[in-house]
Design a protein that fits this description.
The complex is a heterodimer of chains A (about 525) and B (about 350). With about 525 residues, chain A is an alpha/beta fold. Chain A contains 21 helices and 19 strands. In chain A, α10 packs parallel to α11 and α18 packs parallel to α19. The relative contact order of chain A is 0.11. Helices cover about 45% and strands about 15% of the residues of chain B. The longest helix of chain B has 22 residues. Classes of the chains: A alpha/beta (about 525), B alpha/beta (about 350). Chains A and B meet through α4, β6 and α14 of A and β4, α10 and α12 of B.
């Protein structure tokens, strides 16, 4: 090889290496969340963002390639972003939640500045067009009460993110409360105490046939499953429709309930700690997002932007036949005050939402001895001790059902509590603390036991889920479980939280098969639980 | 030459060199930090402003954004100044902490209402807004009565808008523009007379209802204005904010202004109140920063590029340069704010 060719080969290798480093994934030890990293520049901007911005990654990547900057995107729900801010958000340089309220409610020591809305998207119902037509929703003004009556009659079921986890869920839920309270000027604490509202909202939320912790994942779930309707951002429903039509499937028709509409304004703000260089880099990135070129890109992803509305060239993205009209004025409800919002979220978690039916399969096999066993007990304590659970907005709803299946290669024991009173939850917690580990492992056996429990309940009334707490190393056979799962014919996600010397391989297989996810409980247990509970 | 003379000469040359270095080298820039009302961030981020401050005064003025009333109570460790948007904040400072090292009014801007052409026109038909010489004015007493009666947007011919007629403001218990608007509304409810610590009790129930209708309120007038511009008429039919904000926006974003300038409009409440942006020095550096901000060149930047009226209120100013319709060259019909004790009663009532 001549010297010249050798150098060019070397250069190509270097280029390839740097190309590989774009969009790397890494774990953040402190926040325990997965993050996506773009660029290789010396100045690093760490952004905590709502999951809906995952769709903007190509735009972010393009920026990082051209500029000497590294951008780290960590995705969290809006309530968690608010909590991060309240705790100082030491792991982040910028926040990018779906709505401004989470910044103002979280930024109690005024660290956030340069906040600018990057795009807008209303939170809407996307309903299969044929169903929307048969319900008489097409080309008509639809109210929250119209939607509720279709839920009561059993015509409509929908997927929605958890109100205590995600902005789209919270926004939609506050809209429901307002519409069901007879459109007060603004929702108050007194409204929340009314018996009629409690009945109506519980009824409305009984129409939720699948919940999710994040808006982006709800879209994925929707596209992989067989559902009729979802509540999500207009932008994510537009991109869902783009994919549905590409597949030759029926698109969703968008409904903007006139008495319960919320709008997300996607504000990007800088957390000031006096680093001038970082601040300049942030402002440059923000200016890029607000440039006409990028705003046009955002419109292509179904977001509304800017001062003067949708550009002529992008009018085709917002299709009339899908029920979208960008010339129509969007008039959202007024958001209630911060204390009313927090009260409403607590009521959602503890009372109004469709009760969950959670089957926890706890691995007490020999490989869990010591560390793994201790971690599992700590985890269950966090969710069963209602004082601790409430802090995380994870408290139990009394009408929910909890089952714990203790397993090794056999079923060691199984306890069901129904209703889930605080006393019963405490007893269950004690029982778990007294269990010790030993023996072989067969998690499929435990999951099968869970299915047997589920068969005895009317699953229309619950959000069911099986949750494995394990190191993931198991004998036994998956195909036995699969046969029984298909026999039951219900949409039951099997989530896993990993502990001990975790091996995700078998767990990923189960998650994929059942439309669920695998979380790591060793680094950020609260985060893992909040994620799992967001899905039921 | 004797060796000891050589030593002396070397010493003198060395001393001259060191002295010369200090005379020629630029003065080191002093960095200071403080709390700033969001509406003045545009000025503090202005490159010309920064350059002038560094060149003429060797100052680099950093800031943290905070509401005018919030900043008085915030942790002031390492801070050299507070720069709220009102004298109420200064009064609060005196009440809570004591006499400041120094305080001066640096900038002035009246409180105004921003709206969209369709809303303004409907309010004009209804007699709440009137026009005179190309400027628009809102009769505060008529407006307050309409809000109290629960008149809806649909009632004045705007069924596209949700709920009843309202101006959105920042949180009056935390931020100055909302606080001043509360004072203005209280006066209007008092038949156009300035409320005092006695008469205020008469209007408190209605005042509380007025603000309760707004629900969630922002704490920064800069954020409120940004949302007003971007989210549109459906969410923000009208907001109360500072006059300088639209002037600054039009100067900094001429392209955008060309497209939206006919829809966005400025309405002067009659009477209105002046926001006097007063700087409170917490230490010597803050004291020095006050001198710097009073410099004519800085004051000129503040008016021409950021819309802050700098002279004493009532000064005749050239306003055509901004390209914003209906800006008054002289703001008359200005009413004093209720005094600090009265505002304190109002804030306490609205906090509950």
């Amino acid at each position: 090889m001549s010297k010249k060719t050798f150098i060019s080969v070397l250069l190509i290798l270097l280029l390839l290496l740097s190309a590989c480093s774009v969009g790397r994934k890494s774990d953040n030890k402190n926040s325990g969340s997965k993050q996506n990293i773009f660029g290789t520049g010396g100045t690093r901007i760490r952004i905590v963002s709502g999951s809906e911005n995952k769709e903007l990654e190509p735009i972010i990547e393009q920026y990082c390639k051209k500029n000497k900057v590294t951008i780290e995107m960590t995705y969290m729900g809006s309530v968690d972003i608010m909590r991060q801010l309240q705790g100082g958000a030491a792991d982040f340089d910028a926040v990018w939640p779906a709505s401004s309220i989470w910044i103002s409610m979280g930024d109690t020591d005024f660290k956030v500045k340069h906040t600018e809305s990057t795009s807008l998207s209303p939170i809407v119902f996307g309903i299969k067009k044929s169903l929307a037509e048969s319900m008489g929703f097409v080309g008509k003004e639809v109210s929250i009460n119209d939607i509720m009556s279709k839920i009561s009659s059993g015509e409509l079921k929908f997927c929605m993110t958890s109100a205590t986890q995600s902005n789209s869920g919270a926004g939609a839920y506050l809209g429901f409360l307002s519409g069901l309270s007879g459109n007060p000027e603004v929702l108050t604490k007194e409204d929340l105490q009314k018996q009629q509202l409690k009945e109506d909202i519980t009824n409305l939320l009984s129409g939720v046939d699948r919940s999710s912790g994040s808006s982006e994942w709800l879209k994925t779930l929707f596209l992989n499953g067989d559902y009729d309707s979802m509540v999500n951002y207009e932008s994510l429903i537009i991109t869902t429709n783009q994919e549905l039509t590409a597949r030759g499937e029926e698109p969703l028709y968008l409904i903007y309930p006139y008495d319960g509409l919320s709008i997300s304004d996607s504000p990007l703000g800088y957390i000031d700690r006096g680093d001038k260089k970082k601040e300049e880099a942030f402002l440059d990135f923000q200016a890029y997002l607000l440039s006409e070129e990028v705003q046009s890109e955002l419109q292509k992803l179904g977001r509304r932007t800017g001062y003067e509305g949708v550009f002529e060239e992008n009018k085709g993205v917002f299709k009339k036949e899908w029920g979208i009209d960008t010339d129509r004025i969007l008039s959202p409800i007024k958001l209630p005050t911060a204390d009313v919002i927090m009260e409403a979220l607590n009521l959602y978690q503890g009372e109004f939402r469709k009760p969950s039916l959670s089957i926890y399969c706890l691995d007490f096999s020999g490989s869990m001895k010591g560390k793994g066993e201790r971690e599992v007990k700590e985890a269950m304590d966090l969710i069963l001790d209602q004082e601790k659970a409430k802090e995380l907005l994870l408290q139990a709803n009394p009408s929910e059902v909890n089952q714990v299946i203790f397993f090794n290669s056999n079923i060691i024991d199984s306890v069901i509590i129904d209703p889930s009173t605080e006393e019963a939850l405490n007893e269950l917690n004690e029982r778990i603390k007294n269990q010790s580990a030993g023996g072989g492992t067969d998690m499929y056996r435990a999951m099968l036991e869970g299915l047997i429990t589920l068969e005895s309940y009317d699953l229309n009334n619950y959000n069911p889920a099986i949750i494995l707490l394990t190191d993931g190393e198991s004998g036994g056979r998956f195909d036995y479980f699969k046969t029984a799962y298909e026999e039951l014919g219900q949409d039951i996600p099997v989530f896993s939280i990993m502990f001990g010397d975790a091996n995700p391989e078998q767990l990923e297989e189960i998650a994929e098969y059942t439309g669920a996810r695998v979380f790591d409980g060793r680094e950020n247990l609260a985060g893992a639980f909040r994620s799992v509970k967001g899905y039921n | 030459m004797k060796p000891k003379w050589i030593g002396l000469i070397i010493l003198i040359v060395a001393m001259a060199a060191v002295l010369g270095y200090f005379l020629i080298a630029p003065k080191p820039v002093d960095k200071i930090n403080g709390y700033l009302g969001g509406e003045k961030i545009g000025l503090f981020e202005d490159e010309n402003f920064k350059k002038e401050m560094a060149k003429k005064f060797s100052l680099e003025v950093n800031y943290r954004k905070a509401g005018s009333l919030d900043m008085v109570k915030a942790d002031k460790d390492g801070m050299s100044y507070l720069f709220p948007a009102s004298q109420t904040a200064l009064e609060l400072y005196k009440e809570e902490i004591g006499s400041p090292k120094r305080s001066e009014i640096i900038l002035n801007t009246p409180l105004v209402i921003y709206s969209h052409a369709m809303v303004r026109d409907s309010l004009q038909k209804d007699g709440i807004v009137y026009e005179s010489n190309g400027s628009y004015f809102m009769d505060m007493e008529k407006f307050v009565t309409a809000v109290k009666e629960g008149k809806t947007w649909a009632d004045i011919g705007l069924p596209q808008l949700y709920g009843s007629i309202l101006v959105k403001t920042t949180d009056p218990t935390k931020s100055n523009s909302g606080n001043m608007f509360a004072g203005l509304v209280a006066n209007a409810m008092n038949g156009g007379r300035v409320v005092d610590s006695m008469s205020v009790h008469k209007v408190l129930p209605d005042l509380k209802d007025f603000f309760k209708k707004m629900g969630y309120m922002d704490t920064s007038s800069a954020d409120l204005f940004d949302q007003f511009l971007k989210i549109g008429v459906g969410s923000y039919p009208m907001i109360a904010a500072y006059e300088n904000q639209i002037l600054e926006f039009a100067v900094t974003n001429p392209d955008v202004w060309e497209k939206v300038g006919d829809d966005l409009c400025i309405i002067y409440p009659t009477p209105t109140v002046y926001s006097s942006h007063v700087m409170i020095a917490l230490d010597d550096k803050g004291d020095y920063a006050i001198d710097a901000l009073m410099d004519p060149v800085i004051q000129d930047i503040a008016w021409k590029d950021h819309g802050f009226r700098t002279g004493i209120s009532g000064n005749q100013e050239e306003t055509d340069v901004f390209g914003v319709n209906g800006v008054l060259s002289q703001v008359t019909g200005v009413m004093p704010m209720p005094d600090f004790r009265t505002m304190d009663i109002i804030v306490k009532e609205l906090s509950n």
